[in-house]
Every structure is written in structure tokens, then in C-alpha cells.
């Protein structure tokens, strides 16, 4: 695999917020997930990655180029969906398609209208009469309809019902299936996106606080359910976010391979049980601590 995005020490400063020293590499054919709470800097970061906002400092190459080398080509090869899409409210969806088509060298109108049909969006409806979820679906249809190699999506599941959210996840899986195309998705909630992500970055207050391959993260982060007094004190002291329940307790551990042997006895006796931590569990632990 080759790198589709190579970002080194990206930084951008605002009056009351800053992105600081963010480095990441996204490999071709993968789905990269950038997760974090509201206000963590996800939207600012993906705008920079999509060349929708200038970087403050650091270096960035996308699809092997920097923006000053081939701006028009890059914009055709990237499909970007912002958190809130801005459309002309009094225009119809079909008008928007005709307006946008000349800006893309590989625009596929047939694909766009097929997606609208699949999403059950009326192309003759004015934008101001669309729901928030329908506007998101229109934005996704635009991103999918000009043969982009890279999709960069900010909160793509926001406003979607459960049916369209599942459709989105299935389409993103299919998009990268040939190994030539890539997705970067940013979200404040995992909401099914954790199911399809290959690599994860957790962002908080403008900084990357944890990153890794999803499978590696989930092999290291586990939820330990245990009866009171069943664990050696040094082991229990290393658990994060310990919660007491009527029939025992549970806690999160981020270095399970190091504790596997110490937990083997309680597990064998039936006094403890181990299960994989969700990305939401990990995120809450990282952000909120113990």
C-alpha cells in the first residue's frame, strides 16, 4: 500500500483554539476514522486534509501532491462532505447538479441521479424543503459522483436515520473494496463507523491523544468484569473507569496483554470475565480519564 495522505506536524491557531502537532498517514484502500468530542478540532483537521482550509504550519501531501502543485486536479480527485453543506436554498437538487457538473472533469450524472433514487431524495425539490438528513445525502451523492479517489467526510452519519446510516456504512465498505480508493471519516460518535474503520485517531483539544490500527487497539483495550475482591490489588489499581454494580464491578484496561497472566486465575475460577472494549469505551476513557 502507498500513502494517500501524509501529514506532518500540522498546526493551525485561532484566537481561542488551536490544532497542534498533528501527524498522520492514511494508506490507500483503507478507511481512516478520526474521532473525538465536539470541539476537539476534527472539522478543522479534515478541512485542512481536504484542502478546504490552509494549514498554519507543517507539511501536507495528498494523493502524492501538495495543493500548490496541482490544485484543480486534486479537487477533482477528492470528494469532500463538510459537517454542514451549504446549498442555494431556493434551488432544486437537479439545478444544483447542473450547476456543479462543469466543475468536475469526470462528473457522472447518471450515478448522481441513481444515488438520489437510492436515497429517496426528490431531485425536483427545493433545498429549503429538504430535511437535514436529506441535505447530507445530497452532499454524499455529489461526493460519490465525480469519480473521486479519496472521500473525506465530516460527520457523515449526522441526521441520518438507521436505514440510511446502514446504507452509508455499506457504501463506504464497497467504495474501498477494490483497494484503490480511500475514505477519511470524522465523527464525534462512533455510531457504526467504528465497524468499518481500519485505522483510528482520537483527537481532543486539537491534539492526537491516541492512534493505532483498530484491531490492535481492541486487542489492547478490554473491559474486565469481576467480583469484588477477585482481582489482585495491583491489577485492580490499573483499571480505568471502575464502576461498581450490585453483583460486582467492571473497569477498562488499556494494556491487556501485560495483565493477561494476572487475570488468568480469576477468569478460570469464574470470578472475572473479559470482553472487547468498544471504541466508544476507549474514547470516553481517554477523554474523561478514570
Topology:
Blueprint: E1 3-13, E2 18-27, E3 31-35, H1 42-49, E4 57-62, H2 71-77, E5 78-81, H3 93-100, H4 109-119, H5 132-144, E6 150-154, H6 162-176, E7 182-187, H7 193-196, E8 199-204, E9 207-213, H8 214-220, E10 222-226, H9 233-236, E11 240-245, E12 248-253, H10 256-268, E13 272-276, H11 279-288
Parallel strand pairs: 3-7, 3-8, 5-6, 6-7
Antiparallel strand pairs: 1-2, 1-4, 8-9, 10-12, 10-13, 11-12
Helix pairs in contact: 4-5
Describe the protein's architecture and organization.
The structure is a single chain. The radius of gyration is 22 Å and the shape is elongated. α4 (109-119) packs antiparallel against α5. It has a six-stranded mixed sheet, sandwiched between helices. The chain is of the alpha/beta class. The chain has two domains: 3-213, P-loop containing nucleotide triphosphate hydrolases (Rossmann fold); 221-288, 2-Layer Sandwich (Alpha-Beta Plaits), CATH 3.30.70. The chain has eleven helices and 13 strands. 34% of the residues lie in helices and 28% in strands.
